[in-house]
Amino acid sequence: MNPNLFKRNELLAQKVIHGLQSRNMSGYYASSREEALHKALELIPEGSTVTMGGAMSAHEIGLVDAVRSGPYKFIDRDACADKRAAMLAAYDADVFLSSVNAMTEDGILINIDGNSNRVSAIAQGPKKVLFIVGMNKVCDDVDGAIKRARSVAAPTNAQRFGLSTPCAKTGSCMDCKSPDTICCQFLITRFSRHAGRIHVILVNDSLGF
């Protein structure tokens, strides 16, 4: 990585972490995927019940594989015959793994969801929510973060899932009401009422969509 970009990311991450702290959330900076994985596992006590929403970033740093094979009770939605039961079990989990579609420099988290199991678990239920966030997802402000979520994350995910939405065909948001739309619920997390619940690991890398 260009050393100037590395320094930029490190400095920006400190600003984001300060913003998270002001919002009763915890932030950490990892200079690499390996460091991010190490920090994430520090935050997940052995024996914890762990589950997740869609979080490519957690896969990309190796966290999902580590939890599957480690001393944890992992609720693997993709491996469950009853996916609804797996989704409901997430609300009583010790740790919920996720990422964000975008976030602001002052620590506001932006997420869009189709089935809404992910945003609802982020908002309420699991004892701890652990976000893995590449620095590519940090935006100037809420407007910029929502724009990124709708114009970058949503079309990419619609294409990844093989959905028949206008954005999957054009690559840009059409503000559609398609039956396949994944822009059903918007969650803006600007403060956590419960200290110690939300943790964000910022990774000096481009992760997820």
Structural account:
This protein is an alpha/beta fold. It has a single domain (3-203), classed as Rossmann fold (3-Layer(aba) Sandwich), CATH 3.40.50.10420. 38% of the residues lie in helices and 21% in strands. The protein is built from eight helices and ten strands. Strands 1-10-7-4-2-3 form a six-stranded parallel beta sheet. A four-stranded mixed beta sheet has the order 8-5-6-9, with helices on both faces. A hairpin with a 4-residue loop joins strand 5 and strand 6. The radius of gyration is 16 Å and the shape is globular. The model has no long low-confidence stretch (mean pLDDT 95).
Secondary structure layout:
Elements lengths: L2 H20 L3 E5 L2 H10 L6 E4 L3 H5 L2 H7 L3 E2 L8 H7 L5 E4 L3 E3 L4 E5 L3 H7 L4 E7 L3 E2 L2 H19 L5 H5 L14 E5 L8 E6 L6
Parallel strand pairs: 1-10, 2-3, 2-4, 4-7, 5-8, 7-10
Antiparallel strand pairs: 5-6, 6-9
Categorize the overall geometry: globular
CATH architecture: 3-Layer(aba) Sandwich
Based on DSSP secondary structure assignment, what is the total number of beta strands?
Answer: 10
**Would you give the CATH topology?**
Rossmann fold
Q: Number of helix segments?
A: 8
Helix content: 25-40%
Q: Supply Rg.
A: 16 Å
Unreliable segments of 5+ consecutive residues: none
Structural class: alpha/beta
Biggest sheet, spatial arrangement of strands: 1-10-7-4-2-3
